[in-house]
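Hi,

Apologies if this is the wrong queue. I'm a grad student, and the batch job for NADPH-dependent FMN reductase-like domain-containing protein from Methylobacterium bullatum produced an output file that my downstream script rejects. I'm not sure whether the problem is my script or the file. Here is the sequence I used:
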Amino acid sequence: MTGRPAMTGRRVRIKVPGAFPYPIGRRSMSLQGSSFSGPLPRIVGFSANLQRPSKTRALVEAVAEATGARLRADIRLFDVVDAGTGLGAAWSRDQLSLPARRILEAIENADALIVGTPVYKGAYTGLFKHLFDFVDPAALAGKPVVLSATGGGARHALVVEHSLRPLFGFFSAQTVPTSVYGSDADFSDGVLVDEGVRGRVSDAAAQLAALLGARAKPSASFEAAPATAFAAPNR
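Support response: The file is valid. Your script probably expects a header line. Output copied below for reference.
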C-alpha cells in the first residue's frame, strides 16, 4: 500500500501475543523472534478509539514506529477496547477487569507513553479520562509522553493543547513539545498520508527518543500485558 511513511534502518521485530492476534499497522512485517536482548526502554502506546482499526490507532502506531526507528525499545500498543466493556462501570480500581488492570500496570511501569484519543464533542473521550482517573499520579511524574488526537476537521486541533496537555500536566508528566493532530483528510484508507502531520510525527518521535536516550536506566519492572508488542533495533 502506498502513502505510508517509509521506515528507515533495519526491519522492526514484531511480537504478537496470541490473545490479540492483530498486526502492527496495515502491512505485514517479517517476524524476527520474540525474545529481546538486554534491558530496553519500555514505551506504551494507548489509543482511546472505540474501534480497531482506527485513525487514532494509526496515529499512535506512526509515532511508535518513528520512535522505534531512532531508539531500540520495547513498545506495546493498546486500544481502549482491550480494557473490556466493563471499564465504564468501574467505580474503583479493584472493580476493573484483569485486562484493564494490566493496561494500567503497563502504563504506570512504562518509561514513556504515546497516547491518542479521538475528539468527541470538543474533548477527549470519556473512557480515556476514566481510565487515567485510575492511574497512580506518582507513577507518571517526570515520564515522557507524546500527545496525539484525531478528529473530523481542523477545528478540533486545539483539543490536544487545551485538554490533553493540562491533564498530563496534573500528573507532572514530561510531555514532549510537539503534539500530533490528524483530521479525516490526513488519512487515506486508514493510513496517515499528510506530509505536514507526518512531519510532526517525526518531530515528536525524535523528541521522545532524545528524552529516553538521556535516561540512564529503564524501569526495573515491566509486567508483560496481552497487547501487540514490537521491538525496534537501532538505525
